[in-house]
Specification:
- By secondary structure, this protein is of the alpha+beta class.
- Among the domains are: about 100 residues, no CATH class; about 220 residues, Beta-galactosidase, Chain A, domain 5, CATH 2.70.98; about 80 residues, no CATH class.
- Helices cover about 35% and strands about 15% of the residues.
- It has a 5-stranded antiparallel beta sheet with strand order 1-2-3-4-5, with no helix packed on it. It has a 4-stranded antiparallel beta sheet with strand order 6-11-16-15, with no helix packed on it. Strands 7-8-9-10 form a 4-stranded antiparallel beta sheet, with no helix packed on it.
- Helix 5 runs antiparallel to helix 6, helix 6 packs parallel to helix 8 and helix 9 runs antiparallel to helix 10.
- The protein is elongated and about 85 Å long.
- InterPro entries: Chondroitin_lyas.
- This is Heparinase II N-terminal domain-containing protein.
Length: about 650
């Protein structure tokens, strides 16, 4: 609604006095300043050094400056902010590019060689188109013309040429990712506010409605989103906002939520969350990120499960205005829908994507999410990964995604990072090999997830073998047991089977999300930064060594603990002659080549003599003995017997 319609706006503004006052105060601060300057140097940092943060921050500050003035002028509509606003709008609309540097790696858009609509260009287009519509004749003719011309040249006409024209579509138009929803939502606003020809506008919107279905392919049929919680928030917020716009212009006759899968997709926050809104940070989701509360509330309102009307998105200008309008008017532009499934309080299993969420009950303190497949855009090589919460704290499992992106994050070096490849995930290493690229593996192999469910214990089992390019590997069975007895307990059991004649080279891995402190040869303590502690006990049917190391990547720090099976063949060879010195016992513990001996055995020559074995192994360590043997144990728990 144009800002000049005070009959509409005054009741809305009176219902949101605190917000209006805050917006006005921010606008007043802007009056004495100029819009932050455009910086070529900062924008070009990405193409020069791979740094996208500085340039994007510069562009974001310019957007926020113009947005704050626009809202302030719209709320008061007395001309106080208009001159400064026009100055900012002209600078913003005519800046060298609206496209983020990371999306213009060859700088073709920047240098004017081509046109492109990316996530940010869609945001700018939505903002400028709505500015024209909201302010109307309050803007000078010259300012309005420049903004309209820039919109047509940079984004609106290029997209029309690809929606209803003959030019090759932008890649995101047919892509199953958040880009589809974000770009179409922003450009729908721009088209609705700047395309005067009604048939052209209608044809473009029809194409947007049709092609926006591609976004829904980012989800499995069970509603699980392959892009992770962060990109679910980003993409589905925009898709829900687009829904409101389409319902508005079609009088509710076309509803994007009337799709067979959207019911489950819109309820994903209820299905995938553990208790206290904790969500496993799979893929590029940042650690600790939760589902958007406003988006969740919007979905519940859409399906009649809540009487509270909220906007799904507050990032865009239309979203911010909608957040004021919907709660005040409670008017539905889209008809109320019905979702008949009722979430189970104890667990939810996504049968198609092979993801299981196990929740504790009143007394048990553990929650867990176990992921077998579900890979797609923004996912990692993490088949078989998991996330464990104890007492409302993430303690063990997936470390999440990057806290920032650089040029490598989506390039050929993406899987060099232990945060993204399987090495830094709680999944096995087989014959020295990490998992293969997960999306490709998932396309070639249908992983299974079998489960047993009860009030006191849930189990989930899968075979991870197909994730490894190891021809001699028969199976890698991972079984998760989630117990709700007492305070609860989680067991993760890996079983490896090689083909006949192949030796075992296997490392099971878990990843503490806190400080790891060994408490014994096969146990340790994980302590979170809030003081929550859990005990970890390790058992195996074969000898093993433990290697713990702290990893850091993309500003995320976590610990990787590898439990590596000691080859039975090497162990047998080491003790084949109990009367002689045993070669390389320590060699396959810590990599050294020191020879060790029976406790009382020395070499024949005095100059070759070494301290007895017990002193050699226990120098600086407390002595430990294995029962039922005349034996000693090495500091890392390997039992050396005679």
């Amino acid at each position: 609604m144009p800002c000049s319609n005070r009959t509409f706006w005054l009741p809305i503004l009176n219902a949101n006095v605190k917000i209006v006052n805050a917006v006005r105060a921010t606008g007043l601060k802007r009056l004495n300043k100029k819009i932050p300057p455009w910086s070529d140097a900062e924008y070009l940092l990405y193409s020069q050094k791979g740094n996208r943060i500085i340039g994007q921050t510069m562009m974001k500050k310019r957007h926020e400056f113009a947005r704050d003035l626009l809202l302030a002028e719209c709320f008061d509509m007395n001309g106080r902010f208009l001159a400064k606003l026009e100055e900012a709008l002209l600078s913003y609309a005519t800046q060298p590019t609206w496209v983020l540097a990371a999306h213009d790696s060859k700088l073709d858009v920047y240098h004017g060689k081509t046109v492109y609509v990316d996530l940010n260009a869609a945001l700018v287009s939505s903002f400028l188109g709505n500015a024209l519509y909201m302010l109307g004749s309050a803007l000078s003719t010259n300012t309005a013309k420049i903004i309209r011309d820039e919109l047509k040249r940079r984004t609106v006409q290029p997209l029309l040429d690809r929606l209803i024209g003959t030019k090759t579509p932008f890649y995101w138009q047919n892509r199953n990712s958040n880009w589809n929803a974000v770009c179409f939502n922003g450009m729908a606003s721009a088209i609705l506010t700047t395309v005067d020809d009604k048939p052209t506008r209608a044809a473009a919107l029809a194409a947007i409605i049709n092609q926006s279905d591609n976004y829904l392919r980012a989800f499995f049929g069970d509603g699980y989103g392959s892009e992770g919680v962060g990109y679910y928030n980003y993409g589905f917020e925009e898709y829900a906002e687009l829904r409101e716009k389409i319902c508005d212009v079609t009088n509710g006759q076309i509803d994007l939520f009337k799709n067979v899968n959207v019911g489950a997709i819109s309820h994903l926050p209820l299905l995938l969350s553990m208790r206290n809104q904790n969500v496993a940070s799979f893929g590029d989701s940042r650690p600790g990120l939760q589902f958007s509360s406003s988006l969740t509330q919007y979905s519940m309102y859409a399906y009649g499960e809540s009487a509270t009307a909220v906007a799904p998105n507050t990032r865009t200008l239309p979203g911010k205005l909608m957040s004021l309008i919907l709660p005040a008017t409670k008017q539905r532009t889209c008809p109320q829908l019905l979702y008949t499934s009722h979430p189970d309080q104890l667990r939810h299993v996504f049968e198609q994507s092979k993801v299981a969420v196990f929740r504790g009950n009143g007394s048990s303190l553990f929650d867990m999410t176990f992921k077998v497949a579900g890979n797609g855009g923004h996912s990692h090589n993490d088949i078989g990964s998991y996330s464990i919460v104890f007492s409302n704290t993430f303690v063990v499992g997936d470390a999440g995604g990057p806290l920032y992106y650089d040029a490598d994050a989506f390039g050929t070096k993406r899987y060099n990072s232990p945060l993204i490849n399987s090495y830094g995930h709680p999944v096995p290493v087989v014959s020295g090999k990490n998992q293969s690229e997960a999306v490709a593996v998932q396309k070639m192999h249908n992983f299974t997830l079998t489960h047993t469910l009860s009030a006191i214990e849930d189990t989930a089992t899968t075979d991870l073998a197909a994730a490894y390019d190891v021809p001699t590997l028969e199976r890698v069975e991972r079984k998760v047991t989630f117990s709700r007895v007492g305070a609860g307990q989680v067991s993760i059991q890996d079983t490896v089977e090689m083909k006949p004649g192949a030796s075992v080279d296997f490392e099971s891995v878990f990843t503490p999300l806190g400080t790891w402190t060994p408490t014994g040869a096969a146990s340790g303590l994980v302590t979170s930064n809030t003081g929550v502690t859990v005990n970890v006990c390790i058992t195996a049917s074969a000898l093993f060594t433990i290697d713990a190391r702290v990893l850091t990547s993309y500003n995320v720090t976590w610990t990787r603990v590898g439990v590596k099976v000691v080859s039975p063949e090497r162990y047998a060879a080491a003790i084949k002659n109990k009367g002689s010195m045993m070669d390389n016992i320590i060699g396959f513990i810590d990599g050294s080549k020191i020879e060790t001996y029976r406790i009382t055995q020395k070499r024949g020559r005095t100059e070759d003599a070494l301290p007895d074995l017990q002193r050699l192994l226990y120098s600086g360590h407390k002595r430990r003995h294995c029962l039922n043997f005349q034996a000693v144990t090495a500091p890392d728990g390997l039992c050396v017997h005679f």
